[in-house]
Records
---
Amino acid sequence: PRPAAADACDRLEALARAERRRFDPGLRGDGIDPAAAREAAKVRDELARALRAERSGGDAEDAADDSLICRLLLAAYPERVVRRAAKDANRGQMVGGVPVELDDASAVAARPGYPRGELFLAVAVQGLGQGLKTVNQVRQAAELDEADLEAVFPGSVRREERLRWDEAAGKVEGSVAWTYRGLAIRIAREAQGDPAAVAALLAEKLAGEAEALVLADEAAGSLLRRWRWLAAVAPALAPAPPDAAALARLVANLCEGCRSRAAVAAKPIADWLRAEAGFAAAQRIDELAPATLPVPTGNRIRLDYAEADAVRPPVLAVRLQELFGLPATPTIVDGRIGVLLHLLGPNYRCEQVTRDLASFWANTYPQVRKDLRGRYPKHSWPDDPLSAAPEAKGRRRS
């Protein structure tokens, strides 16, 4: 048999059975209290008479089907609509976010192999109002669907576009939800969402990692480090570099048209950062704090600004043979600051660190030459490095 749509339907049927048996005391064997049933029938008759008087003679005893009973209960308890966690679950969430659990004895309860509709009305609730952490027990319920909500409260079901941040995937996901008094009763996944709202949420989530995003981009990270260093050692020669708020605004602009961290990172961030500096200032940074420096072999070697500050200059890590013929330490900032040289052996391991190349050639090179010549006899180790031709033997390294 079809399960009852509401516990009230079972109770109405029990009342009708009690009336047919004229409230026989033997009803107790069927779980019906004849005295309580007689009292319920009396109250019903009084209400029916009052309704007939109100309707001036209309028939107030028309039989009500299950659907009508559920809708009448909904009209009485509009704030007690519940959405099940699943069609075969008896746990759910009520309007207002209240967690509830439907009693297994309810006519509306789902059972293994017999799922029910996703919506029901919590008619009688034990413990309601004790806090959101309390799972409230629903003793009596009525089955509902979206059509019932619209029939009783037209316009109460509203379509809402929703966005959420998926941290694991690093992207904004959209969905469309149909809600009743803030309770999502139906959700359609994978909606695109309003592009402006998507970009705004993405910008909000990436604001805290704006600097990391910029630094992770090779060209943009180089420019930002060089800009910060130049502003620290020669503030009159460069505008103030962007602070955390400015970088967050920069990333927010980059978020336009994107819905993921990866899409933002794929944009030409360095171009946006140059625009932040201004054309003239960006050129000045490139000239005074260059990304690379030429060495006598003709190679351009990358300068490392990762640990550079007002005291420590950027590092030029270069193989010793590439500097033959160079008498002094290379400089930047219009010759004002010498770089920190990490002089590498043929195996690219650092053999010496110096800020004074001339002193190294004169005082330290003879010992270094002696140590390395035995290990790398195929490489050039001239007595006079200043008159020797530079050598870029082996694989090139930027």
Note: The first helix runs from residue 7 to 20.
---
Amino acid sequence: MGNRIVGLVINYRDAARTARCVQSLLDNDVSDIFVLDNSADGGKSAVQLGDALAGDRRIQLEVSRENLGFARGVNRGLRRCVECFDPDVILIINNDAVLQPGALSVLSAAALKHHESWVISMDIDHSGRRQGPLFYQRWSGLQFTRPVAGAFPFASGCCLWVDARKMTFPLLDEAFFMYGEDCELGWRLRQQPGSWTHVAESLVRHEGAASSGVGTLFYETHMVAAHLLLARKLAHSGIEAAVFSLARIPVLLARASLRSFRYRSWRPWRALWLGTQLAWRHAV
């Protein structure tokens, strides 16, 4: 294929899924793989990963002493990939995802055809449901699976082909601990016509939120924070940011009500308060 393609996987307390993800990359003849253990669990996950990945010189494992979050973890991993492997392409993939056979051939062909693009995404199989680009409406914060008025497309951060020769650091906005960083990246790429290409083929299987746990306080808090951070990040002015933030209030209140009813818990309301505080700390 000509390109030196390196895989980047962030592990969070799930050695089994990470090992399965890494094996799918090896099966696709990825040159090398950098795995960052982001678990911050006293080395327990690192030991499990070491056992699961031992013996293959193509895999480099590095352990972070703290949980960096997804955006910081990916940015650190990208820098280490460049330092260690001097790649042409870095394939960022979630540890709860599996690359399908032949995926790299399809992506390499897309990169040749769209040579001006330095980020390539693909359709994802979410437990049998095929998902293409998502669409985020700036003024409401609502997300759609098809184009609607006032929304722009962005690629899921589940799996991204990134041209390491054209990439600028940091790739992801580190204000986002997790969730929202892929949407913000899509907004920036939108300002650079031709920089992003989407391949309408299902090349990855993804479990989705396997590590973070949908419905947990952790998940709910960071989802709220992401929506409020995006209100600022996607605005063209301070006035627009204020309008977007105010527009989020009824949406987030409705979201907390629905999820509280669904999970029979007050957790979403607590997360609304904690997530608002988290987003505010980034704003000051």
Note: The helical segments are 15-27, 44-53, 69-85, 103-113, 181-190, 217-233, 238-263, 267-283.
